[in-house]
Amino acid sequence: MSKTITIRRPDDWHLHLRDGAMLRAVLPETARHFARAIIMPNLVPPVVTGTQADAYRDRIMDALPEGMAFEPLMTLYLTEETDPDDVAAAQASGLIRAVKLYPAGATTNSASGVKNFDKVRPVLERMAEIGLPLCMHGEVTDHSVDIFDREAVFIDRVLDPIRRATPGLRVVMEHVTTSDAVDYVKSAPEDLAATITTHHLIINRNHILVGGIKPHYYCLPVAKRESHRLALRAAATSGDARFFLGTDSAPHVDALKEHACGCAGCFTATNTMSILAHVFEEEGALDRLEGFTSLHGPGYYRLPVNEGRITLTRGTDPVDYPAKIDGGDGPVTVFDPGFPLYWKVTA
Ligand code: DOR
Ligand code: ZN
């Protein structure tokens, strides 16, 4: 028996679209199902100023195939030189919806990120004044901290002190991977929210390391142990409006993933909605899927919800997704959840 659900068109509150050939290859994969996405600014060089964000937005719109609708929600990459006036002007004009904080060295293209958090105080204070959200990559970069502990340590050493020092600052803890982060978000007032990726609801660290190294499951923050994955599933399916979808779909060509020093990132744009319907059904929470993908994010970002709808249908035969898409400069592997998917976006 097939089963269907209809929900408001979803948004992706954390997405890597890249540039050039890769942008043209991956944008339709997101625009097919999603109305809007928060666009990560970690290009090379990064999108630091309002002028750069405006030009990047134009390149995204130029890459959108005829007949597809999509609204990129732009962000600026926070550096120690970021000018608070430029940030405020980019928000006032409606160009940007958030600023992204990468601790320097934490992940892909984060070299221009923040080393000394005191240096960005004036920007954070201005953002608190104007209500502009700060999206944080929440991992410390201190080499003495174990990679599996970097998120939990970040909360104590960086996130909590910044929030205390900057009352009113609205923070999205991006791609949370631990029960520590889930608990911290739940304990905080509503100016703090968190995105959860599709892949962190599916994989734990065994998927990356047991039976041979699986580079396509390597991302940052790295997947943690099973108890953390279960905490993320509970948070995502709880109906709590502080948790919403940010896929962190992050394409890299296979040659750079299957490499002696493989890049971090899982490419989930293509099959995210099928995977999420599967997860929410497993958790007996299909009625909460719409909140996670389509309602909580706009609520936090103070944007209207989408008027359009999508319908998902669960068929009796598995959905046939491509194992790879053509990334322009080489193949990009689509995230493999490791089990068949029966839900499909049908309208
Ligand atoms: O896995 C990741 N990939 N995590 C990030 O924070 C960055 C992203 C990328 O840009 O490839
Ligand atoms: Zn990301």
- Give the oligomeric state: single chain
Which small molecules are bound?
(4S)-2,6-dioxohexahydropyrimidine-4-carboxylic acid, zinc ion
Our Rg estimate from Cα atoms comes to 19 Å
- Strand percentage lies at 15-25%
- What is the ordering of alpha helices and beta strands? EEHEHEHEHEHEHEHHEHHHEEEE
Sequence of strands across the biggest β-sheet: 2-3-4-5-6-7-8-9
- Write down the CATH class: Alpha Beta
What does this protein look like?
The chain is an alpha/beta fold and 347 residues long. It has a single domain, classed as Metal-dependent hydrolases (TIM Barrel, Alpha-Beta Barrel), CATH 3.20.20. It is 33% helix and 16% strand. The chain has 11 helices and 13 strands. The strands form 3 sheets. The protein has an 8-stranded parallel beta sheet with strand order 2-3-4-5-6-7-8-9, with helices on both faces. Strand 7 (171-173), helix 6 (179-187) and strand 8 (192-196) form a beta-alpha-beta unit. The protein is globular and about 55 Å long. The chain starts with a strand and ends with a strand. The structure holds (4S)-2,6-dioxohexahydropyrimidine-4-carboxylic acid and zinc ion (ZN). The site of (4S)-2,6-dioxohexahydropyrimidine-4-carboxylic acid (DOR) has 11 residues, from loops. Zinc ion (ZN) binds at residues 14, 16, 40, 248, 250.
